[in-house]
Design brief:
203 residues; alpha+beta; 3 domains; 5-stranded mixed β-sheet; 48% helix; globular
Length: 203
């Protein structure tokens, strides 16, 4: 990856972080870049550069997880999803799905801010979430719970390797707060390799 592009990427993701010192850190790293060059900051030579990289990595990883676990419902040619995002990244999530499904209208709702990010011909528009929340709640599932349980059970059994269960890694990759996105109240597959409690205790 181009070094300048990587630097801008780190700045962008760090700016999305909730750390109250992020602006000071970003400004210091920019000063260091101008004084010492790109390699100085990209190689994390200074404390500030290392902190910037940490903030950027946290947000980047969070976006990756959110893209994996947000649940989209389909209504005609529209795909709509909602979540309470830790960082203001709903627009990034919408952009991801616009690229993935170019022929669909994408709506991503951030319940934390009450904003919806809606795909349009000229980009993404931010709108109040209320009407879209009503749409999301009105959409009936294509499959019922029993069918979803069966499908997920088949998928789980095809992927799980009993000898390689790693509870801590599983929880890092699929935090409990995302479990509610799986409407699988009758299934005990998911938590089998994670802990003794059932999934229904967390949804």
């Amino acid at each position: 990856m181009d070094k300048e592009r990587e630097f801008r990427k780190r700045i962008f993701f760090a700016s999305k972080h909730s750390d109250r010192n992020k602006k000071s850190i970003i400004n210091k790293v920019i000063e260091q870049k101008n004084k010492f060059g790109l390699d100085f900051v990209l190689n994390n030579v200074s404390v500030e550069a290392r902190k910037l990289y940490s903030l950027s990595s946290q947000v980047s990883m969070y976006i990756h997880k959110a893209e994996s676990f947000i649940r989209l419902k389909q209504f005609k040619e529209t795909l709509i999803g909602k979540a309470v995002f830790d960082f203001p990244v709903a627009e990034n999530i919408a952009s991801h799905f616009i690229k993935r499904f170019p022929n669909k209208k994408i709506i991503v709702i951030d319940e934390k801010t009450g904003c919806a990010f809606v795909s349009e011909e000229n980009g993404i528009k931010m709108l109040p979430a209320q009407e879209f929340l009503e749409l999301f709640d009105s959409i009936k599932e294509t499959f019922n719970d029993k069918e979803l349980n069966q499908l997920f059970g088949v998928f789980y059994d095809s992927q799980v390797i009993e000898e390689r269960k790693n509870r801590n890694y599983a929880l890092r990759m699929m935090p409990k707060k995302y479990w509610k996105n799986f409407d699988l109240k009758e299934s005990r597959k998911l938590e089998r390799g994670i802990q003794k409690n059932t999934l229904v205790n967390y949804v």
